[in-house]
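Researcher: I'm comparing several assemblies side by side, and this is the next one on my list. It has 1128 residues spread over four chains. Same procedure as the others: predict the full complex and return the structure.
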Amino acid sequence: MASSGAINTVGIIHNPHIEAAAPLAVKIAQAVRHRGAEVWMAQEVDNPEIAHLVAQTDLLVTIGGDGSILRAAHSTAGCTAMILGVNLGRIGFLTETEPDGWEQTLSRVLDGDYWVEERMMLQAEVRRGAETLAQGNALNDVVVGKGAHARAVHLQVRADGDLLAAYVADGLIVATPTGSTAYALAAGGPIMPPQQRNILLVPVAPHLSLNRPVVLADGVQVQVIVGRRTPATLILDGDVVAELAAGDVVCVGASSCTARFARVRERDYFYRTLMARLAPKE
Amino acid sequence: MASSGAINTVGIIHNPHIEAAAPLAVKIAQAVRHRGAEVWMAQEVDNPEIAHLVAQTDLLVTIGGDGSILRAAHSTAGCTAMILGVNLGRIGFLTETEPDGWEQTLSRVLDGDYWVEERMMLQAEVRRGAETLAQGNALNDVVVGKGAHARAVHLQVRADGDLLAAYVADGLIVATPTGSTAYALAAGGPIMPPQQRNILLVPVAPHLSLNRPVVLADGVQVQVIVGRRTPATLILDGDVVAELAAGDVVCVGASSCTARFARVRERDYFYRTLMARLAPKE
Amino acid sequence: MASSGAINTVGIIHNPHIEAAAPLAVKIAQAVRHRGAEVWMAQEVDNPEIAHLVAQTDLLVTIGGDGSILRAAHSTAGCTAMILGVNLGRIGFLTETEPDGWEQTLSRVLDGDYWVEERMMLQAEVRRGAETLAQGNALNDVVVGKGAHARAVHLQVRADGDLLAAYVADGLIVATPTGSTAYALAAGGPIMPPQQRNILLVPVAPHLSLNRPVVLADGVQVQVIVGRRTPATLILDGDVVAELAAGDVVCVGASSCTARFARVRERDYFYRTLMARLAPKE
Amino acid sequence: MASSGAINTVGIIHNPHIEAAAPLAVKIAQAVRHRGAEVWMAQEVDNPEIAHLVAQTDLLVTIGGDGSILRAAHSTAGCTAMILGVNLGRIGFLTETEPDGWEQTLSRVLDGDYWVEERMMLQAEVRRGAETLAQGNALNDVVVGKGAHARAVHLQVRADGDLLAAYVADGLIVATPTGSTAYALAAGGPIMPPQQRNILLVPVAPHLSLNRPVVLADGVQVQVIVGRRTPATLILDGDVVAELAAGDVVCVGASSCTARFARVRERDYFYRTLMARLAPKE
């Protein structure tokens, strides 16, 4: 069980679509056992058994890309388990180590030579009249987007009940600081250090609407109300979770859960990555 | 048949989804007959009979919004028929008159007191290996976008054969100057006067890709090559015309056809509309 | 002297460059005296006598535009005086009433029927080696910009000591949420509700540098280090306060002072103004 | 004298502020003489003698950065001399070779194994009433900007006499396609291949004004009229050429002169450079 600092149980989640993931999982499991900790391995599957395991786990090692981390964050929401990502994906803003550095990184974490980075998550809920259609957490973003083939969605946004803006757009992204370097960045949003607590609104291709991102305090309750020209779609961290109809209300606010990452890199790693990735080459 | 200036045959196309359109069509038809010209009326339907009528028509009056004009432009491509739009829609960048001004506008056109505005169109063709999957003209834009539920498409763009850019994005808009105030504007593109001849490329939500619009000369042949992470979708002027697979090539260039508009407003009307619509209120 | 709620002393500051300001000041002074409160009047001049008066004042009425409010905010920093702005300027994001509404607004404030809005300010300090060249507060923004005729400045930015970005640009804006709708908006920054506490970095015309705004928590200490290609200039709320040389460091952080505004409008006034000013007309 | 293709006279212009430029000029001069062509060398100085020399020159080799090329383009405007740039500067969008490749590049040009790239230039003229205050050519851009310390300029822009937009901004850039990757890019403009002929308008930090770039046909005459809140400044290719007052009109149109570059790289070099410079690293 998770106690402060001591890592007694390690879970390893490997992406089934990446060939190199399973063999690496086996190696990591051996290394963990060699250090005397309990270990379990699983593919990325949503099943209740894994949820039960995660609740008993101190450290969750993911082998894959940022998508694997996002799913791990959903499964650890409300638990004390920390996440440690080994990058086998394309970008890796969230992972902690490249494949060739896993041994040193893991060894430092098991030695207690790490720090914990807590990142805020969003909690989203869809209401249709009195009914709750769907709900879930997101580490990157909650997106209300046009469905297949539609040209634009009409959305109204309220902040703590006050009408903030009306959008005709491809979609609206409600993002965390972590998500500010993901889809929100592509749509023109500002960058926020991930340890921060703010809620970011970024419209995607707004047509004759307010076209600036809006940054809100983390205590604000955001409501996105679907107008005509449905269908719209609710997407949490890249996964479609509901089809929306006119009048549906998507309520988004800071989640009481956070994602906890075990870090061995310096605390300024975010800025270093930013400079390396986003500043153009001269 | 169409001869220079003299308007002998008028077609009236009314949008079946707008209640006020059919009664207005009847009134306009009466006014045209009263002036001694031939007139035919139709709802917006693609059928070969109408294509035949359009080829014999001097002036095509559309009753609806910008969407009605776009469909009229497709049907008149390659013909001499001029378009005159009566606005019953939301925005009306393309229409010539609001409903209460139709009598005066129509009267001036039938008197020969008008000028003709020619606007360039795009010609698009999808190639899968040796096969041509689909083709068509567009007055606003050719869009290669992500299909339903996909997060992003991977696209490679060539200009006259040279690799111009690789995009990971929600989509890529290839637009005419007319389209520069439509979807391309929403996606962050520059504005171009509609009489101009240029080809505009605007990515939608590009992620860690070239994120600037590119303006090309109208003689350039653009190729958009679909990469992995299909499905992608080909959209001409807002209508889905093909589902695309990895390796498909969308070839886009200036069409030999133009859209011809009968105008009674001053020749600077575009800038006036621009100022009125796009400059924020103080 | 200022006590909670009760308004015993009112200062009136009028802009000497607006003809209508002085006569309006006289009328407002009469109304205040009629209500039994002490009143003093002054043109906008920096002199020690006024600083002394402001310290003894409960309410400072400004007659002018947003510039008058900014100067009032500087003079009340560290005092309990609230600001109430009557708009005789062009935009008026900060003022509380248009000229024709002053009587009702003032009357409600003197009746105690108002709420107090506190807005964060920035504190800036220029260091050249061990020396402090200049310092001051800003309600909108601290700008390090190119001087006259220079093409660009080279700047390095550190956040709590970590290198965040290097810019070649016309300048860098460090703004408060209040400033997010001023110069920072013009330079492409996001919008933040003014009651919020965040620090916003927006480069102006960055050339092959990080070109996204960055939003930081209000506790972060920002350092802007001037590189070669001087001269650079330090501007606080629109006023040039220092000429900067290579190696100079501008330290910016949240000020311990806030600007306090007396408000009679609804608490959602910011969003209403935003919608009215920034959303394009359809 | 310049005849088609044959290069009999070569001028070498070296930047006096770059230490390595003069020795390299000497080496290049030797190589040219060895090939039997006439050669002259000069520092970058505007003097009538050099203008006279340039008129007799077939190839002008510049040793410096893009700034050296811009000055060379001004001096060759109206002549047949081609420009060949050796890059000793920071960026080098305009230069043809890095220092270590000069021998091969020069040799190919002297062998006639090159192509000529013609790039459009702008012609600008300032009118104050009936008087012409200043005029000149620009290869990159004509900028009407705020002078020292001013916050913003108020500008009105006309296109062929029609009011296009009114700006309150740091400045307005009128750029060629060549300039689209220079200051205009920093200010948010689109990219245009340099062989194209278009006029690009990009406001710098526009405040509550039209904030989109506008692309015009190359035949359009642009007028920029200076409003209140002077002083404004006229800058051609980065050099201040006039201080402007309220009411001054800056007339800008395509110049009858072009800049002619001798190129040995492939004709798609522009896109290759674009990809290498502007696409972020993954």
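Model: For your comparison table: The mean pLDDT of chain A is 91.
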